Amino acid sequence: MGQLVVQEFVTADGFAANENNEFTAYELIEGGTEELDQNQLAWLDTVDAMVLGAATYRMFAGFWPTPASEGEIIAPALNGLRRYVFSRQLESAPWGSMPAATIESGDAAEAIRRIKRETEGTIVLWGSLSLSEVFFRAGEVDAVRLVVLPVAIGAGRGVFPRGQDPALLRLLSAKTYDAGLVELEYALGRGRTPGGSAET
Hints:
By secondary structure, the protein is an alpha/beta fold. The protein has a single domain, classed as Dihydrofolate Reductase, subunit A. The protein has five helices and eight strands. It has an eight-stranded mixed β-sheet.
């Protein structure tokens, strides 16, 4: 049985996107991120699959399976993952010259439960905040990895769904890296309220 991990880059004031639903804070980081990249590469050894919403898929597919990602040490590992794209509009999800991603166009919560049953290792969700909200509300997120950037933007969109009951998270690890980055890993409990709709 696989576990679903939501990994998001967030600002120091807790936002995973600005008020335009974009994440540009990473562009403000000064200095290299080699330490984080090395840790990410080691973690990807435990990851079997990625799940993405349509908008994040388009961004990823335009970079990771292309020559633009040459020199990125995590590119081969990331490109080697099984890929699932949740969308009701897309009919195909090519990934450069590599096998295309599998399109999931039905009920997102049911689909992630099936994917978890079919997977032994970790399944990671990157970006895709609307899709992750569905998984949070369905109680299917097992852990969250937040990479906190030393940037404050004042307003935007958080990682967790608005309106949910307070939930106590269990800290699994806290690590610091170059460029002032901090990674916090939390385990989640069960019992979230079902509901929500997937990113398309």
